[in-house]
Amino acid sequence: MTATPTIDVHAHLLLPEIEETVAGHPGHEEARALDARRNGPAALAVNGPMVAARLPRLTDVHVRLAAMDATGVDIQLVSPSPNHYHYWADPQLADAVSQLANEGTAAHCAKAPDRLYGLGLVPLQHPDLAAPLLDHALEQGLRGVEISSHAGDVELSDPRLAPFWARAERTGALIFLHPFGCTLDARLDQWYLSNTVGQPTENAVALSHLIFSGVLDRHPGLKLLAAHGGGYLPTHIGRSDHAWRTRPDARACAHEPSSYLRRLYFDSLVHDPYVLRELIRVAGADRVLLGSDFPFDMGTDDPLGALRAAGLPDHDFHAVRGGNAAALLNLARGGTPR
């Protein structure tokens, strides 16, 4: 392992015990039907075999480590697969899902503690449970939690989430924003638009809620990492700035929206070297971290190759490759926790 390890901050884990726990509960079948409508039959026909082929990498630590070695990745930040959110669940079931996710992720990472760090889950649909279950995740030794772009009628700007944001800021927990599902619903049910258009749209909407609502003004120390390069927002932030300058109803945050991009973190998974360069230009080379979406088909099997394709200066390349993540995760040289 090099002095500065190569760190992939976007890698997933499947926890079958969560799906066994939610099966048969009221709301489960309705949630599955909504997911089917959003994705469409063609996407569902592909998704099943795709996940089945990747199941060993999603569950077996030894297979995961071998795959990391093959791609030159020293450390992964592992988060539960977003299909485990189950934001439809009632408070008792939601508490159980989050505890299973936190404990299961911690157990998986404990099998290779020098190479795997983890994130848990919290039930955003029950804001009063979010802060206590963030504490539960941290108590398991996890570095924070993964959240979606919204949970039913709970947007990330919802005042009821204020205790959660405050707890995350106070503890230094990392919040990984990873959408699952898009509210454009059946408009995106062909050609896998549910993912290719839906995910970056949800990222942009969720980040805009955090910016314009003042959440980032009230919690300047919040550590928030957006998957998929933050979606459409970083490359189209000029339109938000223009609205902020010209419309009183949009001037809700203290500063121009673009200025908040340098308070956030983004993974590098944008599938285009020119978009990656633009993301680094607007957010800063110290705010972008290597991400692969391991091991799903919408990720990359060669995250370092994708990073090299951007043609960054050496200092920026190594910062994105691992230096930024090492600092964010509070790792010493070589990957040891400080």
From TrEMBL:
It holds the Pfam family Amidohydro_2. InterPro entries: ACMSD, Amidohydro-rel, Metal_Hydrolase. The keyword Repeat does not apply. Residues 7-331 form the Amidohydrolase-related domain. Keywords: Lyase. This is Amidohydrolase family protein. It comes from Streptomyces lanatus. The lineage of its organism: Bacteria, Bacillati, Actinomycetota, Actinomycetes, Kitasatosporales.
